Amino acid sequence: MTELGVYTRYSALGASSRLRYLCYADCLMQSGVDARFHTLFQSDYLRMLYSGRSAKFKALRDLGRRMLRMPPQEQKLWIEYELLPWMPFTVEAKFLAGKRYVLDFDDAVYLKYAKHPRLADKFERLAAQAAGVVVANDALFDHFSKVNTHTVKIPTAVDTTALVPREDKFPRLTLVWIGTPVTSRAHLATIADTLRELKKSLDFDLLVIGGVPTPELDFAGVRIVPWSETAERELLPKCHIGIMPLPAGDAFASGKSAYKLIQYLAAGLPSVASPVGENRVVINAGSTGFFADSPEEWHAALRKLAGDAALRTAMGANARHDAQKYSRDQVFAEIATFLDRALELRTTDKNALAK
Predict the structure, then answer these.
(1) pLDDT over 90 (residue 249)
(2) What are the chain's domains?
(3) Are 236 and 263 in contact, with CB atoms under 8 Å apart?
(4) Count of other CB atoms within 10 angstroms of residue 286
(5) Distance of alpha carbon 349 from alpha carbon 333, whole angstroms
(6) Which class for 168: exposed (0-12), middle (13-18), buried (19 or more C-beta within 10 A)?
(7) H helix runs in 274-327, sequence order
(8) Mean pLDDT of 53-72
(9) In angstroms, how far is CA 49 from the centroid of its own chain?
């Protein structure tokens, strides 16, 4: 079997690592690839980060552990963002010397180094020397294709066999947002006042899966539950409308990959979202959801869906249809084809999936 080192940033608790790498462990094995997974930041680091506490000590601990194991044993690598966060390109390049590697991005993480004199161009220099670059959205493709012509856009996949529509909805009209504590503070909070005002004239609940209580969300009808696979699979499809607000004019938000909307598609939910970045690609306006760019537009879109059950049903069916292009089997076939070409893995079956 061909050896492949898969260097993820997080454990399965981190959505990006879980959904873009770890979920393909069985697929890679069945394709004739001996994939060896290496996690950088452990789950206890993420738990502290999500709770709002400083996790610098644990981050340094985990970075130290990875550095002690450098250089990678494998000759072919699939890397989430970078091997060594906060280390300059010259240091990481020494560990990558003689290796053939592919970088993978689902967020505009290069913006975090933009003002750092030693790190500002690290991702671009790593990408320039990579055998290929995988990105999850158009904004990232525009950025990295300028430095590496072997850049391909492959979306984050959803397991359409596990996340499926349900007819037994919550009794009260329920809006849903799913994500992490970090993004609930940064993004969901941007329309909290809008939702609070809408509550005065529209009876609805708001289910927040994976977020945390904040003063902005302290109003009647808000229910916050920790993320888990069970919560995602059982609670998300019981809701009526998915929402994905993003701040306009924010470069990092523009580089988000709209995964919430992909989850809503799989669950058969119509969506309302900010017309920012990849949101504009995932939503088919008027067919699977609506865009809203102001409090008035959010109110109008949510009222329209709230008052028309037949419209929600029709849009939900369209959403589920569109979800198929993000299904795990289809996306893995794209990934395997690209890794074959970039890393010469010679997989035996690009469509192999665990039953």
Answers:
(1) no
(2) 2-157+327-343 (3.40.50.2000), 174-325 (3.40.50.2000)
(3) yes
(4) 10
(5) 9
(6) exposed
(7) 279-282, 295-306, 309-323
(8) 92
(9) 17
In 3-state terms, what secondary structure has residue 288?
Answer: coil
C-alpha torsion sign, points 127, 131, 137, 142:
positive
pLDDT at position 1: 75
Residue with tokens 């949510």: 302
Query: Is the sign of the CA dihedral 55, 44, 182, 323 positive or negative?
Result: positive
Across 341-349, average pLDDT: 77
pLDDT of 3 over the 50 cut: yes
Q: How many other C-beta atoms lie within 10 A of the C-beta of residue 226? A: 11
Residues in contact with 161: Cβ distance below 8 Å, sequence separation at least 6, in sequence order: 328
How far apart are alpha carbons 25 and 124 in whole angstroms? 28
For the four alpha carbons of 346, 349, 353 and 355, in that order, the dihedral sign comes to negative
Helix, strand, coil shares of the chain as percentages rounded to 5? 45, 20, 40
**Tens digits of per-residue pLDDT, 116-171?**
999 999 999 999 999 999 999 999 999 999 999 999 999 999 999 999 999 999 99
Query: Which tokens is 128 given?
Result: 């320039």
Pairing of strands 205-209, 100-105: unpaired
Phi, psi of 312 (to 5 degrees): -60, -40
Residue predicted with more confidence, 50 or 24: 24
Q: What is the pLDDT of residue 354?
A: 37
The answer to whether residues 251 and 257 touch, using CB atoms and an 8 Å cutoff, is: no
Please, what is the Cα angle at 253 between 128 and 45, to 5 degrees?
Answer: 80
**Mean residue pLDDT across the chain:** 94
The C-alpha atoms of residue 6 and residue 352 are separated, in whole angstroms, by 18
Let me know how many helices (H) and strands (E) the chain has, helices first. Answer: 16, 12
DSSP element (H, E) containing 56: helix 56-68
- Give the H/E segment covering residue 103: strand 100-105
Q: Distance between CA 269 and CA 120 in Å, rounded?
A: 40
179-228 pLDDT, tens digit per residue, is 999 999 999 999 999 999 999 999 999 999 999 998 999 999 999 999 99
DSSP three-state, residue 44: helix
Say yes or no to pLDDT of 350 above 90: no
